[in-house]
Write a structure and sequence with these properties.
460 residues, alpha/beta, Rossmann fold, Helicase, Ruva Protein, domain 3, 4 domains, five-stranded parallel β-sheet, globular, binds adenosine-5'-triphosphate, binds magnesium ion
């Protein structure tokens, strides 16, 4: 017979059950651990790479349902098989709703024990494998494409080709939505640092009192709320590239700290003594007129000179002759998976439009028209309807903070918001339901109901 592999843990207060199960499962080739209660069980779990737990639902002190929650918040990939007496099958069913894999009723049937162990171990291994594949995918960046054949874009391509391989600092200047971040990623990808981290900091988005800790990290207890040691962006970018986005929005105080860090590549964490040395390539960007910021005393001149070793000026879309057509073709191809096009008249109309929001606006426009219109090729009529609508909207008021929720009925928008928030928090918490419930201030059971209601896929 085939030897089974996998690490199992039995949590049961009855000696006879623990011993029998251990014996049967070890005979099959599994490594088997045993514990009398949840607390001991968790200790075993933390020290060993456990795949499947056999958990008695009726435990002294902390009950099986609570222990199940503890196990899942330790590692939600671990599968739990509930052992239940006939009298508390209802509890076992509840446990399954809370994420247990299946249950076994006492007296135990050896055949079912072995079948369940095999299936649960296989599932756990698949989940773990999936997760590691996913994180590898995230690490290997998708290659970015700079679309356009205009003089401005070709010039930028040349600068990237010449500047990327060196370690020189690069300052990218351009209006909103012109592709500054995309260019920064291309530079990283064209450099020997490809494969090392590309770390982005949006300097405008971080409150001034946190920017230092965000950039340089902090030691435990450095300030209220600093519960553990945290690495800053400079440290995270070690060996790779640090992209300081919206750099002109940094306070003068933060600018002084950044100046020293980029000159010496040495800094201390907030609340720390140790000097940390890193090797980081700096790319910065801003949509502000940075020379004017310098003249008016809001941006340090010395920092400006340090950052501006290779400048890249990104022209607004309006100044890129012929590129609108190429971008339209590229995006409609992308959004429709190659199934749709624009007519020549539609293209002409769109080429004459000013695109104040540059490539980002154009991309959003194509994304929406691909959803909202159903003619193919997409003609002048659809284009003028939708383009006109947005132009008027833009003139009347700033975009609503509700975004696309603003177009729904209140009840729909409320559900949609709830769904998106749950998905986002689940992602942030590695699809660990108990932990996510904690973050959202919900009981896990309640969160489970919502996950079901919205059909959210938690087996990521
Ligand atoms: N030349 C291009 N080819 C293809 N896609 C582009 C191009 N330029 C920009 N984009 C796309 O347009 C969007 C906006 O670009 P990006 O975020 O790089 O602009 P940005 O200048 O950083 O904007 P902001 O100043 O608002 O932060 C992104 O989705 C980007 O991938
Ligand atoms: Mg940007």
């Amino acid at each position: 017979m085939k030897e089974q592999s996998g690490n199992l843990l039995i949590i049961d207060d009855e000696d006879s059950i623990r011993d029998t199960l251990k014996e049967i499962l070890e005979d099959e080739g599994y490594r088997v651990f045993a514990a009398e209660d949840g607390q001991d069980g968790l200790a075993v779990l933390r020290d060993n790479d456990i795949d499947v737990v056999f958990l008695d639902i009726w435990l002294p002190r902390r009950g099986g349902i609570d222990v199940l929650g503890d196990i899942k918040s330790e590692n939600s990939d671990i599968e739990v098989v509930i052992i239940s007496g006939h009298a508390n099958v209802d509890l076992a069913v509840k446990a399954i709703k809370l994420g247990a894999y299946d249950f076994l009723e006492k007296p135990l049937d050896i055949g079912s024990v072995l079948t369940l162990a095999g299936k649960a171990v296989e599932l756990k291994k698949l989940k773990t494998e999936n997760r590691s594949l996913k994180s590898q995918l995230k690490g290997s960046e998708e290659k970015v494409l700079l679309i356009g054949e205009s003089q401005g874009i070709n010039h930028i391509r040349k600068t990237i080709a010449q500047g990327a391989p060196s370690d020189s600092r690069i300052l990218i200047l351009g209006e909103n939505g012109t592709g500054k971040e995309l260019i920064a990623r291309m530079i990283h990808q064209g450099s020997p640092r490809l494969g090392q981290p590309f770390i982005e900091v949006n300097c405008a988005a971080i409150p001034d009192n946190l920017i230092e800790s965000e950039l340089f990290g902090h030691e435990k207890g450095a300030f209220t709320g600093a519960v553990g040691r945290k690495k800053g962006k400079f440290e995270l970018a070690d060996g790779g590239t640090l992209f300081l986005d919206e750099v002109a929005d940094m306070s003068l105080n933060a600018q002084a700290k950044v100046l020293r860090a980029i000159q010496e590549m040495v800094f201390e964490r907030v609340g720390g003594e140790e000097s940390i040395r890193v090797d980081v390539r700096i790319i910065a960007a801003t949509n502000k007129d940075i020379r004017k910021e310098v003249e008016e005393g809001r941006f340090r001149e010395d920092l400006y000179f340090r950052l501006n070793v290779i400048p890249i000026n990104v022209p607004p879309l309006q100044e890129r002759e012929g590129d609108v057509v190429l971008l339209l073709e590229h995006f409609i191809n992308q959004f429709s998976a190659g199934t749709r096009q624009f007519t020549a008249e539609a293209m002409e109309e769109l080429s004459g439009y000013a695109w104040p929001g540059n490539i980002r606006e154009l991309r959003n426009f194509v994304e929406r028209i691909n959803v909202m219109s159903d003619d193919n090729p997409i003609g002048l009529a659809s284009v003028s309807t939708f383009l006109h609508r947005f132009e008027e909207g833009d003139k009347k008021s700033a975009p609503s903070f509700l975004g696309d929720l603003g177009e729904m009925k209140l009840s729909e928008a409320r559900d949609e918001f709830e769904k998106r928030m749950i998905i986002e928090k689940l992602e942030e918490n590695g699809y660990n339901v108990s932990r996510t419930a904690g973050v959202l201030g919900l009981y896990p059971g309640n969160l489970h109901n919502k996950i079901k209601k919205y059909g959210i896929d938690t087996k990521k």
